[in-house]
Amino acid sequence: MAPVAVFVGVMGAGKSTIGAAVAAELGVAFADTDAIIEDRAGKPIPDIFVEDGEPAFRDLERRTVAEALATFDGVLALGGGAILDEDTRKLLAGHTVVYLSVELTDAIKRVGLGAGRPLLAINPRATLRHLLDQRRPLYLEVATHTVATDGRAEAETTAEVLTLLRR
Ligand SMILES: Nc1ncnc2c1ncn2[C@@H]1O[C@H](COP(=O)(O)OP(=O)(O)O)[C@@H](O)[C@H]1O
Ligand SMILES: O=C(O)C1=C[C@@H](OP(=O)(O)O)[C@@H](O)[C@H](O)C1
Ligand SMILES: [Mg+2]
């Protein structure tokens, strides 16, 4: 069993939104590893970061992603930092992985003040710029498809992903 597609990309790329829209269009289930992690931890992601620390979150994330890749057959959205883990990147090999790319200007517009995203609590613009530079090569490494989302409406991005997946 394998997901129909796995969405990766930085915060604000649209993984959760576009992933759910693509799943609805395909008539398959949608799952977001961040939501699974929150369910399991019994608290929102910012609370996990503050109370347990980022390493505890990354550990939960690594295990949650590995389990979903092995057991889930719908559309799966990962959190933006999931690909930092080398084991996770290896596990993604062989899967259909859609990298939703976004540059700083649009990403900032979409995440606003970073509410709900603990890594953006301080200086969201500078942090996001750094994360984009650090992670872009990793997203490209795991991607089988890349879709640029800058300046595009959700419906356009969704349609392009569907075209790629149906090819
Ligand atoms: N072309 C687009 N593609 C993806 N998201 C878009 C687009 N245009 C606007 N958005 C908005 O950007 C936000 C992306 O947030 P989200 O899906 O949570 O991203 P992620 O899960 O990648 O952090 C949503 O509010 C969505 O409505
Ligand atoms: O980029 C990251 O390290 C993170 C991205 C978030 O998910 P989204 O990319 O869906 O916002 C969430 O997993 C957590 O706040 C950490
Ligand atoms: Mg998300």
Automatic annotation (TrEMBL):
Catalyzed chemical reaction(s): shikimate + ATP = 3-phosphoshikimate + ADP + H(+)
Cofactor: Mg(2+)
Binding site residues for Mg(2+): 16
Residues binding ATP: 12-17, 117, 152
Cofactor note: Binds 1 Mg(2+) ion per subunit.
Organism domain of life: Bacteria
Keyword Zinc-finger in record: no
Broad class of where this protein is predominantly found: cytoplasm
Pathway assigned in UniProt: Metabolic intermediate biosynthesis; chorismate biosynthesis; chorismate from D-erythrose 4-phosphate and phosphoenolpyruvate: step 5/7
Keywords carried by this UniProt record: Amino-acid biosynthesis, Aromatic amino acid biosynthesis, ATP-binding, Cytoplasm, Kinase, Magnesium, Metal-binding, Nucleotide-binding, Transferase
Gene3D superfamilies cross-referenced by the UniProt entry: P-loop containing nucleotide triphosphate hydrolases
InterPro entries: P-loop_NTPase, Shikimate/glucono_kinase, Shikimate_kinase/TSH1, Shikimate_kinase_CS
Protein location: Cytoplasm
Protein's UniProt keywords contain Acyltransferase: no
GO terms, molecular function: kinase activity
UniProt-annotated binding residues for substrate: 34, 58, 80, 135
Purpose: Catalyzes the specific phosphorylation of the 3-hydroxyl group of shikimic acid using ATP as a cosubstrate.
Record-stated family: Belongs to the shikimate kinase family.
Subunit structure: Monomer.
Listed name of the protein: Shikimate kinase
Lineage: Bacteria, Bacillati, Actinomycetota, Actinomycetes, Micromonosporales
Gene behind the chain: aroK
